[in-house]
Amino acid sequence: MHYFSTNRRSPHVSFREATLQGQPADRGLYCPVEIPKFSQEFLSDLKRYSNAEIAFQVIRPFVGDSIPDEMLIDICSETVDFPFPLVKLNEQISALELFHGPTLAFKDVGARFMSRCLRYFSDDSGRKTIVIVATSGDTGGAVANGFHGVEGVEVVILYPKGRVSKVQEAQLATLGGNVTAVAVRGSFDDCQSLAKDAIADADLQKRVFATSANSINVARWLPQQFYYLFAMKQWNGGPPVISVPSGNFGNICSGILAHLSGMPVSFFIAACNANDVVPQFMLTGELRPKSSITTLSNAMDVGNPSNFVRILELFGHSFSALKERMTAVSMSDTETAETIRNVYGSTGYILDPHGAVGYRALAQYLDSNAGRSGFFLATAHPVKFDSVGIIIDEEVEISETVRELFKRPMQSIEIDADYPDLKELILSKV
Ligand SMILES: *Cc1c(COP(=O)(O)O)cnc(C)c1O
After folding, report:
1. Are residues 79 and 55 in contact, defined by beta-carbon separation less than 8 angstroms?
2. How far apart are CA 127 and CA 396, in angstroms?
3. Quick one: which atom of ligand 1 is closest to the CA of 355?
4. Using CB atoms within 10 A of its CB, is residue 291 exposed (0-12), middle (13-18) or buried (19+)?
5. Fewest CB atoms less than 10 Å from the CB: which of 209, 249, 255, 368?
């Protein structure tokens, strides 16, 4: 498989090159030149495959000959060695729980897959590999955990100071070793643009191999298809409506990719918080990035969703083709809190703020589209968010892993949202 840049000024590259570079020099995003098709037999026999086998079948055409099959099988089984249950909440709505990995959010899947690919690729590269990642909350912990202790790789995590939860900060800032946590005095968008500056800095690239572990990296983006198929393995009934809590739009984009490869889906809902750039786009056809607004679902506080351009590519930039397959809605914090409270009251199920946005968007859609059913992605465990306990007025049980985290000292460095400062810090790591 080859990858082209959405800005079309950089050459096509292999999976290996796309993973190592993160972003093409023309600052577009890499997309696969073709969409592989699942065989009918694979789709109808999903129940016969283990999760690791499904992952391998899904990712193999995208990886091509960049990684030998035996190695790729190992990478897949390490990546998905925890459960992905589809939990029925009522007749119409199920939750696809993606929070049973080491850092309690779906980003573990992409981060684990990518770190293992990079370990394989960096064996033969000589130059020091620096992974730079901007996080609005959950990416940082997942990437820190996925890469911690990986030889030959330094990790720099940029997060907006004071805007991530206690658990999230502990997950990314207490590991130390090859993981450096940087608290940026600014927003997530500032962090993201600092990361992009670093990757695009030719002078820096001469000295180190700087790459990104954000969802723009194909090795993080593409494995997110896996759990849509794990859900289908557990799904009974016609094609589901799938609601995806969305911020940077990598997760929903991977679901759409799996659908275009043949996975039956009735409709996609991009469930957003008050950061409503895409919901506005779906109304007007105009994409107008804004500054991000802080909300309860902080991992979705994105004002300029980078992966959305990939969705447009998948639909050949046809607005009408996109509207047939997907809608996008925006929820306020009041609605999010109300949903957490109501669902807890009526079923005892504790939603996290991101899952709550997904749940409500799905419930609203099903209300006006009778006879359908579906699932939303429960993208993180409620314990990660300090707000949930306050909303349900009850302590959310803290797991052993979280208790251990809080015992470790925080080790983060504070900087202004200023690229030269970041560059100096990166160079001090080599
Ligand atoms: C990152 C994240 C999202 C948003 O995912 P995108 O791929 O950026 O759209 C939603 N929920 C949680 C819990 C997250 O960590």
Report:
1. yes
2. 45
3. 11
4. exposed
5. 368
pLDDT digits (tens, 9 = 90+) for 193-208: 999 899 889 999 888 8
Of all protein residues, whose CA lies closest to atom 15 belonging to ligand 1? 138
Strands 3-5 vs 30-32: parallel, antiparallel or unpaired: antiparallel
Distance 275 CA to ligand 1 centre (A): 13
Phi, psi of 337 (to 5 degrees): -65, -40
Task: Note the pLDDT tens digit of each residue in 124-150.
Answer: 666 788 999 998 778 889 999 999 988
3-class SS of residue 230: helix
Measured in Å, residue 110 CA sits from the centre of ligand 1 at 12
Residue 227, Ramachandran bin (φ over 0: left; ψ between -120 and 50: alpha; else beta): alpha
| CA dihedral sign of residues 142, 146, 148, 151 | negative
The H or E element spanning position 96 is strand 93-97
Tell how far CA 211 is from the center of its chain: 17
CA distances from 178 to 128, 151, 173, 191, 426 (A): 12, 8, 11, 20, 12
Does ligand 1 lie within 6 Å of residue 310's CB atom?
A: no
Express each pLDDT in 11-61 by its tens digit: 999 999 999 888 898 989 999 999 999 999 999 999 999 999 999 999 999
Exposed, middle or buried: residue 48 (CB in 10 Å: 0-12, 13-18, 19+)? exposed
Q: What b-and-e string marks burial along 60-88, b requiring 16 or more CB atoms within 10 Å of the CB? A: bbbbeebbeeeebbebbeebbeeebebee
Query: Residue 337: CB within 6 Å of ligand 1?
Result: no
Active site residue 429: no
Q: What is the pLDDT of residues 310-357, one digit of tens each?
A: 999 999 999 999 999 999 999 999 999 999 999 999 999 999 999 999
The response to whether residue 381 sits with its C-beta less than 6 Å from ligand 1 reads no
Average pLDDT over residues 242-254: 97
